[in-house]
Amino acid sequence: MAAKNQCTFGLRITGCVATLSAALALATARQSVHFSDVNVSIQVGYSDLMCYMCLLVVNVIVCVYSFAINLLPKKSLLWRSVVVIDAMLMVLLASSNSAALSAICLERNGNFHAGWRGICGLAPQYCDHIIGAIAASYLGFVIYMILLLLAINNLLNPLLVQ
Amino acid sequence: MAAKNQCTFGLRITGCVATLSAALALATARQSVHFSDVNVSIQVGYSDLMCYMCLLVVNVIVCVYSFAINLLPKKSLLWRSVVVIDAMLMVLLASSNSAALSAICLERNGNFHAGWRGICGLAPQYCDHIIGAIAASYLGFVIYMILLLLAINNLLNPLLVQ
């Protein structure tokens, strides 16, 4: 039981660090792009697209929650409710990660059929920050998925081990 | 117990219908666009973007699963494993829905900072199909979320009802 508690404690702290890294990488995703042919400079940043702002907010929430939940006493009955909150946060992370991944894929590759050119060649630093943030955020998602599966496993024995 | 079984049966059949509708709407999302100024016609369709193809595949899988799982005998121990599969499918639906939503938002609004124009004005029928598919698929997601929360509620009493 103590080993199991230490394991979930470790997972939550790793989740906290991963989502904090994701939030920091996103918040610093900003770069100026100069188009020399028309002599125009524009700035691209995470705040251009709603899905990156969502990803930032979700990562900040998960980071704070992952840290704070460890302060709950081990014998509290509230740990039962924590399973539901974990499941919700996992879904929020999955959704916001996928939305951001979809957007960065479009920003990287463009969409030939819509006549859109990729912008990662022009703003590589911005794209690297976004991709790093999504990778870290997916780590957070995997951790919450493991926490949910561990909870279901403890309760239900879904693998039907005798 | 019988009422609870009927409730989950009803939810699964609704999920089956919702994901089937989403798959059909997506599979028929295709439209020719004519640019009169340069006299060029292109065809936009769901297969242009990977995220729409993912959404189609996930919806077909969930549709078949939602129907087939009702054939499992009520007293089978395998219902314990079904909770885990439900959770996985819910995450897949959440992810593919969000990715598609993010892409259709970009296709609808464009991205000013990347110099992308929205294409929904040119291909309204295509966009309507995609948006309808995403809405139906979100209904499927909500149903699987409810199924998971019902399962957790039965096992854990997370609201601490005396």
From TrEMBL, chains A, B:
Residues 7-142 form the Casparian strip membrane protein domain. The keyword Metal-binding does not apply. It is a multi-pass membrane protein. InterPro entries: CASP/CASPL, CASP_dom, CASPL. It is found in: Cell membrane. Its main location: membrane. Keywords: Cell membrane, Membrane, Transmembrane, Transmembrane helix. This is CASP-like protein. It comes from Quercus lobata (Valley oak).
